[in-house]
Specification:
Elements: H1 2-16, H2 26-130, E1 137-138, E2 145-152, E3 159-166, H3 172-176, H4 185-188, E4 199-203, E5 208-212, H5 223-237, E6 244-252, E7 258-263, E8 269-274, E9 278-283, H6 290-296, E10 306-307, E11 316-321, E12 324-329, H7 339-354, E13 359-363, E14 369-370, E15 373-374, E16 379-380, E17 384-385, E18 387-389
Region (Disordered): 96-125
Transmembrane segments: 51-71
Keywords: Membrane, Transmembrane, Transmembrane helix
């Protein structure tokens, strides 16, 4: 708004100026002015010519002064960068070397452990392969003098037969009164010897054994305890042909009551392994067939520390013919001559004996020989189980 007012004032003032008329011809006016315009342009041009070299010279001087400083800084920065890069590379190299060395050490250590473990495993396998296999029976043709003992398992569920092999000069009847000396409950992991302090007198003519129990002897309530007591006596004396036990002062058998004598007999049983050390007879019901008993031998009873005697991968077909029990291996069956198979053969032999068989014939066996047993021929059932050799002691 103010700008317009000033403009109007200027226009009004100009209008008040006196009118001047110039009668000079335009061409004359131009001819007068042209030379001055050219001179003015030449002066400006000269001034520009003079100014440009000065400015250029000044800029060059400044650049010359600045460039060394820039180059110096660049060199310093480059040197610092190179130094830092070298340090970083050195650190990375050292770290990587450390990792590599550590990794190599770990691999070497792990390799050492693996080698040691493999060596130990190999040594164990070699030791197992070289260790003689343990027989759990006394063969029918083995000569010697035997005393038959018995103990209960740690949970008082089963009776474990023990056959002591003694010198021929030993009085068997007298040895029965010393049995407690040779029973090792702790190392065998068995219950306390139930007949501790009892004395025995054999009457082989009448097939009787006279027993005098320790004073105050009594069984705890429960049919199992009475059954264990009965089966222990049967295990100890029926191999000698004894059929009856006579208690001189009677016997308090808990739930059964007070008795003076007892008929001795052994139930049919299938054989498994107790504590990986003893063959143990597992009583069966009278309705159980030999086929069912053989099948049951492949089952564990871990709650009683009882393990199977027929491996899972062994398949057997069972047939019987009179006193001969035949077992046929399935086709493509794989067997090794090792402790497990030896234990299987002997457990089957003892089971067959318990069921009244006299011989066992293995058919289609992939092995002809297992330890001392020729599987291609009938094998006689053993005379006893779990031998403990006391000769030369």
């Amino acid at each position: 708004m103010r700008h317009n007012e000033e403009y109007d004032k200027i226009i009004a003032s100009l209008k008040q100026l006196p009118v001047v008329k110039d009668k000079m011809d335009k061409s004359d006016l131009y001819s007068r002015i042209s030379p001055k315009l050219k001179d003015s342009q030449n002066v400006k041009s000269k001034r520009k010519v003079k100014v440009v070299p000065i400015l250029a010279t000044a800029m060059v001087a400044v650049l010359l002064a600045i460039i060394p400083f820039i180059l110096n800084n660049s060199s310093t920065q480059q040197a610092d960068y190179s130094m830092n890069l070298d340090v970083a590379n050195t650190y990375d190299y050292m770290e990587e070397s450390g990792k590599t060395e550590s990794s190599n050490e770990q691999e070497a250590h792990s390799g050492g452990i693996a080698d040691d473990s493999q060596e130990e495993s190999t040594e164990t396998r070699v030791a197992m392969d070289e260790a003689p296999m343990q027989s759990h029976i006394i063969s029918a043709d083995e000569a010697g003098t035997f005393v038959y003992g018995a103990v209960a398992d740690a949970q008082n569920q089963y009776v474990i037969p023990i056959t002591f092999i003694v010198e021929d000069s030993v009085n068997v009847a007298a040895f029965y009164n010393q049995l407690a000396t040779y029973i090792h409950e702790d190392s065998w992991n068995t219950a306390e010897y139930l007949l501790e302090g009892a004395s025995f007198e054999l009457n082989e003519v009448d097939k009787e054994v006279f027993i005098e129990l320790e004073n105050g002897f009594t069984l705890e309530e429960g049919s199992t305890n009475a059954y264990i007591f009965e089966q222990m006596l049967a295990t100890m004396f029926t191999p000698l042909g004894i059929e009856k036990a006579v208690f001189k002062n009677g016997a308090d058998l808990g739930s059964i009551g007070f008795i003076k004598e007892m008929v001795l007999y052994q139930d049919e049983a299938l054989y498994k392994l107790y504590n990986n050390e003893f063959l143990i007879p597992i009583p069966t019901s009278k309705e159980l067939s030999i086929e069912e008993a053989i099948a049951e031998m492949s089952q564990n009873k871990p709650e009683f520390n009882v393990s199977r005697t027929i491996p899972d991968d062994v398949q057997l077909e069972v047939q019987s013919s009179g006193s001969l029990l035949e077992l046929t291996f399935a086709d493509e069956q794989v067997l090794l001559d090792n402790q497990d198979i030896l234990t299987m053969v002997e457990a089957i032999l003892m089971t067959a004996k318990s069921f009244g068989f006299e011989e066992v014939q293995f058919q289609n066996s992939p092995l002809q020989q297992v330890s001392e047993y020729n599987l291609s021929k009938p094998i006689s059932v053993p005379s006893a189980a779990n031998p403990v050799d006391l000769r030369d002691e």
